[in-house]
Design goal:
The chain has one domain: Response regulator (Rossmann fold). Helices cover 36% and strands 27% of the residues. It contains 3 helices and 5 strands; from the N terminus they run E-H-E-E-H-E-E-H. The protein has helices spanning 16-31, 52-57, 87-101; strands at 4-10, 35-42, 45-47, 60-65, 82-85. Strands 3-2-1-4-5 form a 5-stranded mixed beta sheet. Helix 1 (16-31) packs parallel to helix 3. The longest helix is centred in the first third of the chain and has 16 residues, at 16-31.
């Protein structure tokens, strides 16, 4: 059974870096054997919104945000499995981030 990871990506402008981080993280997580779902919060609003079930079933929750998240209260009860990081970490080295944090 593969492990599950969910993430939210949100940068100040909500354009390129948000989607680049989501794409790189998704590819690296899948390559590492994770089932992955990434929500983006950008110029076009919330896309691929994580459900309560997605969050509950996840082994890890990655919040990569430079701005306050919409619906941040959804993550209050899962602090023990939540990892906060900057968008740049996922853009520049998603594989390294996963190797270091998702064990």
């Amino acid at each position: 059974m593969s492990k599950k990871v969910v993430a939210v990506c949100a940068c100040p402008v909500g354009a390129a870096h948000t989607y680049l981080a989501a794409d790189k993280f998704t590819k690296a997580a899948e390559k590492a054997g994770f089932e992955v779902k990434v929500e983006t919060q950008g110029l076009t609003g919330v896309e691929d919104e994580l459900s309560e079930e997605d969050i509950e079933e996840a082994d890890y929750v990655v919040l990569a945000n430079e701005v306050p998240l919409e619906g941040e209260e959804r993550f209050e009860d899962c602090e023990d499995k939540t990892i906060h990081c900057r968008i740049a970490e996922l853009v520049h080295d998603s594989a390294g981030f996963i190797a270091e944090n998702l064990v």
